[in-house]
Write a structure and sequence with these properties.
Rossmann fold, alpha/beta, nine-stranded mixed β-sheet
């Protein structure tokens, strides 16, 4: 089985080098508990491996061709700025120079009350140009539009499906974030069914693409039932939480809720939680592992 490193060396060394290729991985996180830093660190360190700056924990792993962040509500520039503030310059430059972005914000906001000029500079430029067109050109455009067959704009899922079909093979894809996409389709049971059906199809297709697809989801934004339905559509679910570590201190922890083909590598059948540290110089790291009480 092909294995693709997560890029977090302190984790990869515990799970046999990385995650099974073809996996869809749900990263379910409380706010600020570390899933975003996990993804940034994964992108940075995997890029360093591809450039031979860093060695994988297992020499037999397969590195992805590219690392893609597909964004919906947030712009690529916003993510780059946050990465620059979170990590030291050399790590940020690895992220900036090696990560590719696909921005779906126009598809995402098209059906909302948000003006597209707020979202896309391209739309703003086009609309300013339209104001400068002559009246004759405007009438000609209206004639062409009314005489041509109506073309229904693609939905966010349709545009995403086209992108994944042409791009996902042998790559790491981060859908940033699944929370944004899920809430867009959670307003009715019919639309929610379409969304979960899309995830089921994605799970099947991912096995042919032989890459990794990360689905970051903020915990408790959706109903518990809907979170469970999402978890049932993926290969692995990794939880990021805050835990009390004394009367005045909290710590970040991570644990695997499920992972096909991976859990047996984690000390047999033991359920393990990992304490997390996050620093500007090293990013996301696993500090230590321990058995979850009551689940030994």
């Amino acid at each position: 089985m092909k294995t693709i490193p997560s890029g977090v060396l302190s984790l990869d060394s515990l799970i046999g080098g990385g995650f099974p290729a073809g996996s869809i991985i749900l990263l379910r996180s409380e706010i600020g508990a570390g899933h975003k830093e996990f993804l940034m660190t994964s992108s940075i360190m995997t890029s360093a491996m591809k450039k031979n700056i860093l060695r994988p924990s297992d020499p037999d792993v397969t590195l992805p061709d590219n690392i893609w962040w597909a964004t919906f509500a947030r712009s690529p520039d916003d993510i780059l700025n946050e990465t620059g503030m979170s990590f030291e310059r050399d790590l940020f430059e690895l992220f900036r120079d090696n990560v590719k972005f696909k921005d779906f914000s126009e598809d995402y906001f098209r059906s909302s009350h948000v003006p597209l000029e707020w979202i896309s500079g391209r739309v703003k430029e086009e609309r300013e140009k339209e104001k400068l067109d002559s009246l004759a050109d405007a009438f000609a455009a209206i004639h062409r539009t009314t005489s041509a067959p109506a073309i229904k704009p693609k939905t966010a899922l349709e545009s995403l499906a086209d992108f994944l079909t042409g791009t996902a093979k042998n790559n790491v894809i981060i859908l940033y974030t699944l929370s944004d996409l899920a809430r867009l389709y959670s307003d009715s049971e019919i639309r929610w069914y379409d969304f979960t059906l899309f995830l089921r199809g994605l799970q099947r297709a991912a096995k042919k693409w032989n890459g990794l697809i990360y689905l970051p989801l903020t915990a408790n934004l959706l109903e518990a039932r809907k979170e469970e339905e999402i978890s049932a559509c993926v290969d692995g679910t990794v939880s990021f939480q805050w835990e009390a570590a004394g009367p005045t201190r909290r710590r970040r922890i991570m644990y695997f809720e499920k992972f096909r083909g991976l859990l047996p590598r984690l000390d047999g059948a033991a359920v393990v939680k990992f304490e997390i540290t996050i620093t500007p110089t090293s990013g996301f790291e696993v500090a230590r592992a321990e058995l979850i009480e009551g689940l030994k």
